[in-house]
Amino acid sequence: MRPVSYSTVRLLRLWLVVVAGLVFLTVVVGGATRLTESGLSIVEWRPLTGTLPPLTEAGWLAEFDKYKAIPQYQLVNRGMTLGDFKTIYWWEWGHRNVARLTGLVFLLPFLWFLWRGALGRGLVVGLSAIFALGAVQAGVGWWMVSSGLADRIYVSHYRLAFHLTLACLVFAALVWTAARVGARGIVAVPARLRVGAVALAGLTLVQIYFGALVAGLRAGLVHNTWPLIDDRLIPRAADLFFADPLWMNFFENALTIQFTHRMVGYTLALVALAHLVDALASTRERGVRRGALAVTAAVAVQIAIGVMTLLARVPIDLALLHQATALVVLMLAMLHAERLTRPAAAPAPAAPDLVLAAR
């Protein structure tokens, strides 16, 4: 075992930050693809040969003919011009190719760092798991798209929610790993602060999942009032739970899904605020205090954007901002949780702790 140079550690962090940024971009472009109803414009999955778009008029017409064969065209977009088709095609093509680029930007430097012996065993395992999740995510993306090609005009909201949540897991893992590489420990903090930080990150992922269900079921286009929903603070039980079995309402009932998304958001805000108060009262560690404040502020901003998006009936710009801000909240929550779950620091060393690599 030997210590890696500080410059190599910085390079590792930079690489992981770039990959996380590309995942962020992929998710945002994916959101735009969904909001412009472009996700079914490419009806085939060709991971290697689908990189290039049609290069001739005949190629464009062939792609358009494939789209004309699916229910979305026949029932929603009949009469669409080739120019209109190109617009939705470019969104889906862009989403897929940003994802391909992300995979390459991860894999090639990973192999280089591995060849140089710059990665410790734990980091190799962690990064390999992240790459595997990314590969699974690509397959899940096609699994989602395929749900809208035969008997539906839109993709399954279950698969959409799984696709987005898995992307957020990959993003969260990259953020965590980038922060942990070469990191020093922190001074000891109460265990409840650590639990609170991890709970915030977990609740954020749960909230993103329910937000994806709202988006996939188009539940943001109904009950466009706030703070009331269906003219009440709490809807009638008969309206919330009319489906049988009962649990199905949390996945199929637009009112229940939107109400749950609101309630999880309020819960997240309360947990963040309580955690902030606890952090200010129980530790003088600046990084911990700032982290708690950043998460709380981001949650407050995100709730405000969500309310505006709902009241405006989900315009594309606000909806995209809402999705992007969710990733910012997740990033801040992961950075905060990572900091609080590091081993407590010994007396400050002369140089930063560095990643160890096996020869």
From TrEMBL:
Family annotation (InterPro entries): COX15/CtaA_fam, HemeA_Synthase_type2
Transmembrane regions: 12-32, 98-115, 122-145, 160-183, 195-217, 263-281, 293-312
This protein's record includes keyword DNA damage: no
Compartment(s) where it occurs, according to its Swiss-Prot or TrEMBL record: Cell membrane; Membrane
Annotated signal sequence range: none
Alphabetical keyword list: Cell membrane, Heme biosynthesis, Iron, Membrane, Metal-binding, Oxidoreductase, Transmembrane, Transmembrane helix
Annotated pathway: Porphyrin-containing compound metabolism; heme A biosynthesis; heme A from heme O: step 1/1
Lineage top rank: taxon: Bacteria
Residues annotated to bind heme: 261, 322
GO molecular function per UniProt: heme A synthase activity; metal ion binding
GO cellular component: plasma membrane
Keyword Cell wall biogenesis/degradation part of the UniProt annotation: no
Catalytic activity: Fe(II)-heme o + 2 A + H2O = Fe(II)-heme a + 2 AH2
Bilayer topology term: Multi-pass membrane protein
Pfam families reported in the protein's UniProt record: COX15-CtaA
GO BP terms in the entry: heme A biosynthetic process
The enzyme's E.C. designation: 1.17.99.9
Entry cofactors: heme b
Self-association and partners: Interacts with CtaB.
Sequence similarity: Belongs to the COX15/CtaA family. Type 2 subfamily.
Function field: Catalyzes the conversion of heme O to heme A by two successive hydroxylations of the methyl group at C8. The first hydroxylation forms heme I, the second hydroxylation results in an unstable dihydroxymethyl group, which spontaneously dehydrates, resulting in the formyl group of heme A.
PANTHER family reported for this sequence: CYTOCHROME C OXIDASE ASSEMBLY PROTEIN COX15, CYTOCHROME C OXIDASE ASSEMBLY PROTEIN COX15 HOMOLOG
Protein name per UniProt: Heme A synthase
Naturally occurring in which organism (per UniProt): Rhodoplanes serenus
